[in-house]
Write a structure and sequence with these properties.
30 strands, mainly beta, 4-stranded antiparallel beta sheet
Length: about 425
């Protein structure tokens, strides 16, 4: 298993001086290489709706964050070694409030990098999704391509191509390529001179896909209506080249895995790697299904840890926070099935075989920050788990899985 160890005590990286609005420099540290050409799976599962666009480079992470009503979306850079966040603006004395002058005020989706440039997709009113590229310090921004009117499904980047959904059809195109040259990966392609470029007419009623990639395989999750009127999260796979999609998994029935918070409709969290899907059933347990044989096994019984909970995964760990759904302010009942949670003070870390490795207490932050309304898991990379603490305002934090040491990285006051 591959572990990345971050040294938070050494000098900040040279790149930090490029992405910060502050002046300064530092010694470049030897950090482990990151393959920026592939879909970065562990960064695409944040349950925090206001921080769910993340990509990684050798030195750090780029991410997009919604600061709340009237505060605008912003692009940020998180330095791994220094564990420090800076606004991705690079303009001295900028207050990061005016979108006409500040480089960071971007509502970005699908962040990725080729190591030399940062890319993102953005929905432009009346013009669908557009892809932009910029220097790693947030300057020199330019539009590189259009993804048409695809308004809902998030594109992903994998092996040098952007995979996106249009009218229920999945396409792939190289960044900066001509949209009319996009390859149809899967779906009925109603190409005609009327639609142009091989695209079906956009239909907002078509199913919406969550795209995923692992190795030579593209996956997409879709909520499929059942004969009894219910819906189930259903996973399909297909080759990266044009090919047939096949159903490889669906949310199991509660008769097979026991009742859980979402009562058999949707999984609380899932992660595909090496031909298997790992999933967590809030109010239930950790499970793994082999996508070739269909064999499903329980990895860990978590009911003794928490009745509810939220989780994130990596290629090394299954991380579970013992939180609970929000309470309805009118009748005090739990708001079952909603993505927002509250409470929780402990993270339980398992390996991919379901063995409990660590119990990480977050109580020290409660003592330091005061009353914490909620912890929200963001992503796990190497031996570091990143999360938000909401204590009247948000605080970005990390915890070292091996030592339990908590670091406050950035305070959005």
């Amino acid at each position: 298993m591959k572990k990345r160890l971050f040294n938070a005590l050494l000098a900040s990286l040279l790149l930090l001086s490029l992405v910060s609005c502050d002046k300064g420099g530092g010694e470049t540290l030897p950090l482990e290489d990151v393959d920026t050409s592939v879909f970065q799976k562990n960064l695409h599962q944040s349950q925090c709706g206001d921080l769910d666009g993340i990509c990684e480079t050798k030195e750090g992470y780029y991410f997009n964050c919604d600061l709340g009503p009237g505060l605008k979306f912003r692009l940020y850079y998180l330095d791994k070694a220094a564990q420090k966040v800076t606004v991705l603006c690079a303009k001295p004395d900028c207050d990061h409030q005016d979108p006409d002058t500040c480089n960071a005020l971007v509502d970005a989706l699908c962040l990725w990098t080729d190591g030399a440039r940062l890319y993102y997709a953005q929905t432009v009113k009346g013009a669908g999704k557009r892809v932009y590229a910029e220097a790693l310090n947030g300057t020199e921004r330019r539009e590189v391509m259009s993804l048409g009117e695809a308004a809902y499904d998030r594109p992903i980047y994998h092996r040098g191509e952007v995979f996106f959904v249009f009218g229920g059809v999945i396409y792939a195109v190289k960044p900066g390529g001509n949209l009319k040259d996009a390859r149809r990966i899967w779906g009925r392609d109603s190409a005609s001179e009327a639609t142009g470029g091989g695209y079906a007419a956009y239909d907002p009623t078509t199913p919406h896909y969550t795209l995923w990639a692992d190795g030579d395989t593209l996956y997409f999750m879709v909520n499929v209506p059942q004969k009894d009127g219910a819906q189930k999260d259903t996973l399909f796979s297909c080759p990266l080249e044009v090919g047939e999609a096949k159903k490889v998994w669906e949310t199991p029935d509660k008769e097979d895995v026991g009742a859980w918070e979402t009562t058999g409709v949707s999984v609380s969290q899932w992660y595909v790697t090496d031909g298997a899907i790992y999933f967590y059933l809030s109010g239930g347990d950790f499970w793994r299904s082999d996508l070739t044989t269909g064999e499903t096994v329980k990895l860990a019984d978590t009911s003794d840890k928490t009745l509810y909970g939220s989780a994130v995964f990596s290629d090394d760990f299954l991380c579970l926070l013992n939180d609970r759904p929000l309470t309805d302010p009118f009748d005090g009942t739990l708001m079952v099935g909603v993505p927002l949670h509250e409470g929780g003070d402990t993270v339980f870390v398992y390996d991919l075989e379901g063995a409990l490795l660590r119990e990480l207490s977050l109580k020290p932050l409660m003592e330091k920050l005061g009353p914490v309304n909620a912890f929200t898991l963001l992503f796990c990379d190497g031996d570091t788990l990143y999360f938000n603490a909401t204590a009247g305002h948000k605080v970005l934090c990390s915890v070292n899985i091996a030592t339990g040491e908590i670091t406050e990285i950035y305070n959005w006051q």
